[in-house]
Write a structure and sequence with these properties.
7-stranded antiparallel sheet; 2 helices; 18 strands
Length: about 240
């Protein structure tokens, strides 16, 4: 395959990957706590002289936007949102994970859990128990849970030591592979949840741009294929 063919394939592959990311963003525009993703493009140039060098566009790295989504009032006693920095600490079968999705509820066993049934943890990594008869549950801005005027636990609000080392799992969870630390002055809001930070209009506009770029690339590849075929036919005569 000639240089132009390699360049065209690498570009089309990257555009297709970005289209998949955009589609996932749009699909999660209404997912509580979802963080929008993007694709970082880079240029890769193979070694060679000025004639044989090949420049290819690669889009293999995903970047995540940690911009805060809109805080929506729910009035739910167990619904929580974080204003500013921080993530809720969650216990899953695969280990501790971080999330901004705070639509919590008490389980049948009395522990505070996510919508997927994962335990909400305190800063020490222990599940939080909620008394079944607690009708006046109050959660302060530092995450302290109280009932009948007595503190019974504290929701863990942590910050990854390196956001670039965060690994996404599904639509709402992240693994802090470089570790995490407690947020000193968190601002937990009871009766709120945080919406997705996806801007559907901008994502739709970007999808149209990527679609057009892909179609142009496809047209170029078809013309290049025809050029090579014509050249081979002329050579065989």
């Amino acid at each position: 395959m000639e240089t132009a063919g390699y360049a065209a394939i690498s570009r089309q592959s990257s555009l297709l990957r970005e289209m998949q990311v955009i589609a996932n963003n749009i699909a999660n525009a209404n997912t509580t706590g979802f963080r929008q993703e993007g694709v970082i493009f880079s240029e890769y140039i193979t070694e060679g002289d000025d004639v044989s060098s090949v420049s290819m566009s690669l889009g293999r790295v995903h970047n995540t936007s940690y911009a805060q989504g809109e805080l929506e009032i729910t009035g739910g006693m167990y619904d929580l949102a974080i204003e500013g920095e921080g993530f809720f600490l969650i216990g899953t079968p695969n280990g501790e994970r971080l999330t901004r999705a705070g639509a919590f509820s008490p389980s049948a066993q009395g522990t505070l859990v996510t919508s997927d049934g994962y335990a909400v943890l305190d800063a020490g990594g222990a599940p939080i128990f909620v008394p079944p008869d607690a009708t006046d549950l109050a959660i302060s801005q530092d995450g302290t849970i109280s009932t009948a005027g007595r503190p019974i636990g504290q929701v863990g609000v942590v910050q990854p030591t390196d956001k670039l080392a965060m690994v996404r799992e599904g639509s709402q969870l992240f693994e802090a592979t470089a570790g995490y630390e407690p947020v000193e002055n968190p601002k937990v809001m009871q009766g709120f949840t945080e919406a997705s930070n996806v801007d559907p209009i901008l994502q739709m506009a970007r999808m149209v741009e990527v679609q057009r770029a892909y179609e142009l690339g496809q047209s170029f590849a078809e013309r290049e294929d025809q050029r090579i075929r014509d050249a081979m036919k002329a050579f065989m005569k």
